[in-house]
């Protein structure tokens, strides 16, 4: 019995000494991940993959502290079994969190994230060493605990994260020397590996980085669907992390695809698209020459065969020759179609170059070519001013009848909007964009059952692309800026704009402007999810009255304000109606007869009040808006209607309904 007591006493003392060392070890290392957790809590607004990373970090911290707690409890239990006394301290620590204060930027504090990575880098080897010491203590005492591995595992995890995060942070620090990262970089730059990826973007970008053109094409196709609102942010970060060498290689291989990716810097998109334009401009003429030569040779062969058939009386021989002639005619038709397509591309290139030439004139900055797709109706986006550096951005969306071949006029509208906005706000950087990223319906398709000016099919197809383009403008924009984004939709382009806004409620734009709108696909301005909604309609613009055609009723009597259900046309409620609830700015009558539809295209006329008001709106200078002459002011609305807008935003009376538009173009 005495011997047992001696053995028990020795064992107890040994266990107590080990518990003391383990307690000291736990007190030294249980809080190893606390500072990293604090940084994540203080910067939880970063978004992107940060929430998943923060969750994983918190789980590792909890497992680390639980491991020390479990081991210490097991040691104490054994001490008590031997008759000793043992108290186990708590290894759980409190993580005080700071609330992120509003500041001049929306993004990431790069310096704080650098300290987070440094803390993880220090914690990794320390926890691995602590795990080894803890395991050795238990092995010496022949004590088994399934929790002991969690200490070392936390250290291994920290080291794995550091290897990825240091590389990502280095890229962020190189491209954002002002100490803050842009919203997209903040969201996906540092913790992008933890972001959800339902659409397989990570695999596509990895393949694209290796020069896989099909992966690039898949990314372009995905952004056209608009279903991944994080795509532009991911692409922005992916592109920056590639580095100049890899970027240059991709531009050389697939310049047109690279130039179409939303979220990439405007300077890089411009460089890629200009390279694509130059390559096409060089490739099309010899291809045209080849096609025309082939066509001429084919016509000569057809004539020769026709002449030969004229002297043949044998019906069997003549039948064989006629079959061959029919084959030649089919080939000739295909060749002519190819020639027409190449000629169309040449005209499209000429229109784009003409539009871009407006940059650098009259004090304007050089044009940025943000998109270029040739063939068919064609697509493009031209910006006057760098949108990534602009304080105020406006994206103009044209309407019915617009094609790439005739885009020079639309580019001019964006150019004069830059002129006007700059004139009223000289201390601000302005970017004015003409965006034709959708297939606009043509006047000749009025009686089509699918893509026509009197249904929203084309707008439904184009809205996702516009939403993605807006995502890209925000993702690529520089840090530490309160840039103001306006999207202006004209005619059918307002329908596209309205539907795009509904796809990104609260995140599409800071302001939308509708001019000459036949309807925006919404019953109320508030349905668009945009803080500032403006409407301008010329009194002699009949297109703006399409939304008041009595085709259906929209709304109920149970809305916030008492009103009658609004009359809705084929593209939605008339946005210039009081029931819609938008703020209206004055547009003067151009003096043209309504039936000519000329008033529909004169919102950008030089020195017009409408153009001046658009310039004020782009800059947010609402107090400067020009009101109609006193003789044209409307009478006060009835008390049942929504409150009247400010006097400087009043519009003239509604124009009378007019016949359906004729093929006059927007």
UniProtKB/TrEMBL annotation:
InterPro entries: AB_hydrolase_fold, DUF1023. It comes from the Bacteria. Keywords: Coiled coil. Residues 288-352 form a coiled coil. Residues 378-546 form the DUF1023 domain. Residues 625-666 are annotated as: Disordered. It holds the Pfam family Abhydrolase_8. Residues 636-646, 656-666 have a biased composition (Pro residues). This is DUF1023 domain-containing protein. It comes from Streptosporangium pseudovulgare.
């Amino acid at each position: 019995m005495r011997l047992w007591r001696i053995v028990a006493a020795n064992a107890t003392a040994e266990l107590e000494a080990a518990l003391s060392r383990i307690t000291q070890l736990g007190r030294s290392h249980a809080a190893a991940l606390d500072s990293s957790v604090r940084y994540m809590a203080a910067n939880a607004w970063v978004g992107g993959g940060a929430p998943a990373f923060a969750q994983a970090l918190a789980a590792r911290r909890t497992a680390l502290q639980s491991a020390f707690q479990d081991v210490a409890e097991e040691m104490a239990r054994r001490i008590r079994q031997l008759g000793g006394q043992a108290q186990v301290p708590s290894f759980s620590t409190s993580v005080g969190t700071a609330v992120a204060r509003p500041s001049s930027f929306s993004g990431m504090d790069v310096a704080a994230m650098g300290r987070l990575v440094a803390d993880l880098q220090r914690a990794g080897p320390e926890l691995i060493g602590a795990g080894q010491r803890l395991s050795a203590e238990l092995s010496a005492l022949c004590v088994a605990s399934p929790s002991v591995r969690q200490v070392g595992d936390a250290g291994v995890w920290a080291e794995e994260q550091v290897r990825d995060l240091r590389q990502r942070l280095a890229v962020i620090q190189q491209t954002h020397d002002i100490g803050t990262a842009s919203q997209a970089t903040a969201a996906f730059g540092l913790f992008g590996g933890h972001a959800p990826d339902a659409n397989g973007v990570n695999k596509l970008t990895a393949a694209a980085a290796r020069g896989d053109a099909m992966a690039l094409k898949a990314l372009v196709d995905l952004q056209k669907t608009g279903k991944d609102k994080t795509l532009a942010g991911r692409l922005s970060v992916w592109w920056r992390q590639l580095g100049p060498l890899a970027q240059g290689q991709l531009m050389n291989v697939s310049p047109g695809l690279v130039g179409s990716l939303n979220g990439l810097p405007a300077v890089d998109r411009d460089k890629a698209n200009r390279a694509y334009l130059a390559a096409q401009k060089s490739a099309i003429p010899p291809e045209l020459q080849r096609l025309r030569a082939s066509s001429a040779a084919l016509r000569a062969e057809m004539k020769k065969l026709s002449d030969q058939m004229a002297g043949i009386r044998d019906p069997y021989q003549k039948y064989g020759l006629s079959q061959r002639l029919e084959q030649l005619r089919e080939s000739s038709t295909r060749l002519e179609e190819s020639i027409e397509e190449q000629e169309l591309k040449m005209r499209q290139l000429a229109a784009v170059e003409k539009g871009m030439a407006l940059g650098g004139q009259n004090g304007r900055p050089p044009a940025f070519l943000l998109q270029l797709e040739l063939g068919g109706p064609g697509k493009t986006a031209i910006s006057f001013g760098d949108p990534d550096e602009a304080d105020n951005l406006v994206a103009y969306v044209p309407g019915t009848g617009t094609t790439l071949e005739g885009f020079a006029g639309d580019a001019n509208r964006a150019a004069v909007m830059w002129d006007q906005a700059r004139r009223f706000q000289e201390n601000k950087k302005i970017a004015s964009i003409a965006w034709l990223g959708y297939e606009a319906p043509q006047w000749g398709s009025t009686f089509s059952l699918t893509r026509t000016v009197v249904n929203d099919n084309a707008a439904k197809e184009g809205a996702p692309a516009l939403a993605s383009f807006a995502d890209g403008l925000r993702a690529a924009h520089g840090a530490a800026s309160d840039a103001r984004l306006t999207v202006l939709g004209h005619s059918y382009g307002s329908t596209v704009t309205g539907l795009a806004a509904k796809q990104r409620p609260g995140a599409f734009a800071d302001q939308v402007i509708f001019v000459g709108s036949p309807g925006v696909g919404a019953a109320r301005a508030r349905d668009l999810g945009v803080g500032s909604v403006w409407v301008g309609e010329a009194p002699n613009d009949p297109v703006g009255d399409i939304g008041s055609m009595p085709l259906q009723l929209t709304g109920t009597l149970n809305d916030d304000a008492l009103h009658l259900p609004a009359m809705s046309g084929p593209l939605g409620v008339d946005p210039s109606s009081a029931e819609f609830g938008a703020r209206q700015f004055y547009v003067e009558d151009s003096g043209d007869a309504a039936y000519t539809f000329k008033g529909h295209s004169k919102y950008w006329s030089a020195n017009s009040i409408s153009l001046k008001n658009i310039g004020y709106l782009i800059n947010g200078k609402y107090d400067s808006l020009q009101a109609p002459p006193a003789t044209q002011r409307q009478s006060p609305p009835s008390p049942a209607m929504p409150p009247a807008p400010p006097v400087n935003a009043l519009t003239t009376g509604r124009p009378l309904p007019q016949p359906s538009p004729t093929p006059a173009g927007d």
